[in-house]
Amino acid sequence: MSTQGSPLPRRTFIAGALAATAAACTSDGSRRSSSASAPDTSDASETPSSALAPVPTGFVSSGPRDRRQVALTFHVSGERTLAVRLLDLLREGKVPITAFMVGSWLHDNEDLAARFLDDGHELANHTYTHLTFPSLDRSTMRSEVERCRDELVRITGSGGRFFRPSGTSNGTDDPGAAVRGVAQAAGYATVVGFDVDPSDYADPGARVVAEHTIAAVQPGSIVSLHFGHTGTIDALPQILDALSGRGLRAVGLSGLLS
Questions:
Q1: Where are the alpha helices (DSSP H) in the chain?
Q2: 96-112: b or e for each residue (b if 16 or more CB lie within 10 Å)?
Q3: Strand partners, 251
Q4: Domains of the chain
Q5: In whole angstroms, how far apart are CA 208 and each of 2, 198, 212, 224, 233?
Q6: Lowest mean pLDDT among 16-20, 124-128, 229-233
Q7: How many distinct helices (H) and strands (E) make up the chain?
Q8: The whole model's pTM is what?
Q9: In this predicted model, what pLDDT tens digit does every residue of 190-208 receive, in sequence order?
Q10: How many CA atoms are closer than 13 Å to the CA of 163, on its beta-carbon side?
């Protein structure tokens, strides 16, 4: 199922300015696939890129509680074979995600960007080298955001709509004016946290990942999960079954927040 060996076509997603200082880097970052095996995005959760609904500006860690929707967000790095396994599982379940790409990983695996987009996933910015972001000086912050944005633009034609700082342990805490300012200057009006964190990056096992996610998720939740961990892959079917059983639909961030 590898896409190596074929050039990646350029994609342009004109979505209007996210911020007056960075209009050139503003677009949806997602592409609807025409494949029958792609995730079902037939409702308002996926808005055409030419008419994107507005999303909140500043910092958000959850969406509206009056919609029976949740956003599964994944930090994308780690072993390539595990990434393909997780993508296969998401395709099988027809589940769209928002993928926060680590820029250096994307650089090394740029052919997989086509797979994310063709399967209906939304790409977003998670810095270039995944440093502990709040501890960085402003110049280094700016470089981390802009390098990842530029990699996304080079490979996909879009810098994406959302930014999430790396190395933060509490997804409900506003990362502060400095982080929001750097993100906005780079074209990201919305900095995204999360309200459900099963700490799957610590490899507690599939059972713990599933139980912690299911116990915490509610309408409007933004769930933080990670590529590169077998426990996450093994927990995902149980998580998806629980969401379905509770009448919660997984959508991309653009759908949840718009």
A1: 80-93, 103-108, 112-118, 138-156, 177-185, 206-216, 230-245, 253-257
A2: bbbbbbbbbbbeebebb
A3: 71
A4: 55-257 (3.20.20.370)
A5: 31, 8, 6, 14, 13
A6: 16-20
A7: 8, 8
A8: 0.81
A9: 999 999 999 999 999 999 9
A10: 35
Determine phi and psi for 188, rounding to 5 degrees: -115, 100
| Helices 230-245, 206-216: crossing angle, 10 deg rounding | 30
Cα–Cα distance for residue pair 53/230, rounded to 1 Å: 35
Mean pLDDT of 64-79: 97
Q: In sequence order, what are the beta bridge partners of 124?
A: 100
Assigned token pair, 146? 């802009």
**CA distance linking residue 249 with residue 236, whole number of Å:** 14
Rounded Cα distance, 249 and 240, in Å? 9
Q: Would the CA dihedral through 169, 171, 172, 178 be positive or negative?
A: positive
Which parts of the chain are beta strand (E)? 58-60, 69-76, 98-101, 122-125, 162-163, 190-192, 222-226, 249-251
What's the residue count for the chain? 258
In the structure encoding, which two tokens stand for residue 111, read together?
Answer: 């052919």
Q: At what angle do helices 177-185 and 138-156 cross, to 10 degrees?
A: 40
Say what the pLDDT of residue 7 is.
39
Count the Cβ atoms, other than its own, within 10 Å of residue 227: 27
**Paired residues of 60 in beta bridges:** 192
Residues 30-70 have pLDDT tens digits of 333 333 334 443 343 343 343 567 888 999 999 999 999 99
